[in-house]
Amino acid sequence: MSDHHHHDHSGPIAIGATAARVVIGLLVAIGGLVVIGAIALWPSEQHVDIPAPLQNAGGGAVRTEAGTVLRQDVGPCGSPSLGKVFVDEPMQPRNTAYTCQRNLIAIESGPHEGNRTLFEIAPGPGQPDLHAGDRIRLVRQADPSGMPLYSFDDYARGLPLALIALAFVLVIIVVARWRGVRALLGLVFAFAVLVFFLLPALLDGKPAIPVALVAGSLILYAVLYLAHGVNLRTSSALLGTLTSMALAAALSWLTIELTTVTGLSEEQNTNVATYIAHVSITGLLLAGFIIGSLGVLNDVTITQASAAFELAAIDESASRREIFAAAMRVGRDHIASTVYTLVLAYAGGALPLLLLFSVAGRSIRDVLVGDAVAIEIARSAVGGIALALSVPLTTGIAVLLARPLGGKDASPPVRPRHARHARV
Prior knowledge:
Blueprint: H1 17-41, E1 63-76, E2 99-107, E3 116-121, E4 135-142, E5 148-155, H2 158-203, H3 208-228, H4 232-259, H5 267-275, H6 281-314, H7 320-349, H8 351-358, H9 364-369, H10 371-402, H11 417-420
Antiparallel strand pairs: 1-2, 1-4, 2-3, 4-5
Helix pairs in contact: 1-3, 1-4, 2-3, 3-4, 3-6, 4-6, 4-10, 6-7, 6-10, 7-10
């Protein structure tokens, strides 16, 4: 290949001024609408009462403290010291009518730090199996007389989770370097959008589709430009992803309307419907469908944009049609593998549910059309359709930028045989 075929692919390839203005203009216009939408949909400062199951005995938020299991044995239960605060050893039970697991707990934070409490746990499904040395979280409450009471909340996972998260961050940074750092910053921004905008807006009763579209757009603008740089290659992927997300929103709404799934087969949705009645469960499902599609759409669109730009750079004599066809061959392989990822991820999350259905003796038809499984099927189908359509859409945008109108047309002159080897 002659010298004029060698390029530095670290930045965007030169394109026509008209194509650049169209893409940049569209993204600026969409960005302006997103900002206006965020302002209009920004949640108010309304106060929402804590649902009853999430309250402590006094009606406030549940407070937890750190604790460690000092001793665990099986013996007579019914000690008056159960859940109470004491300094040394618990009081003995008044009778020995039954036995259970007894756990002496050291309280290691809060107003009773340095004291102890006692847990008595009867064996059974869902009950914790504590051992000496286990680090746990304790719920701190008070009885009607104001006396403090402690109970088991969960295992303490702060340190292990922090180590796993640190390993994740280090691997990303070591392998991807500064691009990995920028990707992590984008992830932090995405989490902030969900916590400080999406969830409060839904809790405020704002319409789910506009909220999800605004939140998704804010995330996409940040994560794509942070991770991949501000250039036209990234812009083509962003425009394709935004369009595909809008399509996913329309498909999500249509799917939920046609299938009449309610989401009430899931316990957390039922709790929301019971205790936060003004929040729409259908709206939550819609928002979940839309936000859940972002990751896989981002993955596919940036790959297609990069493929189109690289193919155009490798063979300058290739036409737009040839670049599109070659990039689509890459995209079809990507669709096949990503659809597996999408569907199997949802199936993996539903394994406990499928296991229960498998022992219930119900027909496969009843299982598949039941609300719980139907939601996962619908979510997979919506994500798969948006994913498949995002490939030609993004590829077409990227090809127009990599080989703009006014450049090589669809019927170039016959090229030397060695130039054809650049095709994928």
